[in-house]
Amino acid sequence: MPKGKRSARASWLFRNKPAVASANDTFGRFNISINHDESKSEGSIVIQHAVHLEGFSSEQTLDLVVRPESIVACELYLDNQNHRLPPEVLNLMPTNRNNILSLSLTMHTPGTVICPTASLPLSFVSTSFGQQFAAFSHLCRTTQLRIYLGRDQLQSEHRARLERFASAITQRRLRANPIDLRSLGGGGGKQETIWDYIHLPPAEEQQADLGASRKRCRVGEPSTKIQKFFWDMVPPGSPTEVNTPSSRHVTPTLTTANT
Question: Where is the segment annotated Disordered (predicted)?
Fold first, then answer.
């Protein structure tokens, strides 16, 4: 196996593992990936949710990306015996409380969302809405995020790596791994923005449906700017293929905050 592919695989602490994520007292079960390249001091957390969009024949994914630079506090609980687990977690992860690990994150800004390339806000098919969608919406807008993992999902070496990942974030020794938006979507590219540009709040949706074209224009224009910002500033790479080729590399500026 080529060295590059082996390195790319090794950087995934785990990939697309079912886990529970919560924010603002809402809970959902999602596929979660944690990337940690210890040799480069790079990493990120990706929470994925599948939706149906108008204009797309197949199911599409939305990826919530949490970068280390946005995290101001990180706590890893390997033993929840002395910490109360919400009943919703136990309902979504039917196992002994001692078999659940939890990662608590406090961010100074919400994560960003990678979505299919289409006009914003996205047009969701009605079947996309439900409890899972509502939970994902809260995750995308929160600065207080908690992730619950089953101990049986991780081998002992991965649990040790998870501890090092949390420690690296706490000590401000981790920067975001590169993401190459152009390589995603089967090579067709994807865009990265914030949730408020992807899904309008209900009040704005109602105004848009009534033909408030000026309101829709004001909502749409910033999305173009923020898309351009991320195309220009996010380092190349991929949340699913970290070893993609690139012609440029931008080193993010680490944010120092009091914890």
Answer: 236-259
Instruction: Give the number of C-alpha atoms closer than 13 A to the C-alpha of residue 206, restricted to the C-beta side.
Output: 2
Q: What is the pLDDT of residues 68-110, one digit of tens each?
A: 999 999 999 987 665 678 999 999 998 888 889 999 999 999 9
Start-to-end CA span in the chain (Å): 42
Instruction: Give 109-122 as a DSSP string.
Output: SPPEEEEESSPSSP
Q: Look up residue 247 and give its two tokens.
A: 């012609």
In the numeric block, which tokens belong to residue 218?
């004001």
pLDDT at position 215, please? Answer: 35
Strands annotated E in 12-94: 12-23, 26-37, 42-51, 60-66, 71-77
- Please list, residue by residue across 43-74, b when 16 or more beta carbons sit within 10 angstroms of its beta carbon and e when fewer do: bbbbbbbebebeeeeeebbbbbbbbbbbbbeb
218, 226, 224: which is closest to 200 by C-alpha?
Answer: 218
Query: Which of helix, strand or coil describes residue 3?
Result: helix
Q: Where along the chain do its domains lie?
A: 3-233
- CA-based nearest residue to 86, from 20, 163, 153: 20
Question: Rounded to an integer, what distance in angstroms lies between the CA atom of residue 233 and that of residue 229?
Answer: 6
- Rounded to 5 degrees, φ, ψ at 153 are -80, -20
**Do residues 230 and 192 lie in contact, with contact meaning Cβ atoms separated by under 8 Å?**
yes
In residues, how long is the chain? 259
Torsion of CA 131, 135, 137, 141, to 10 degrees: 160
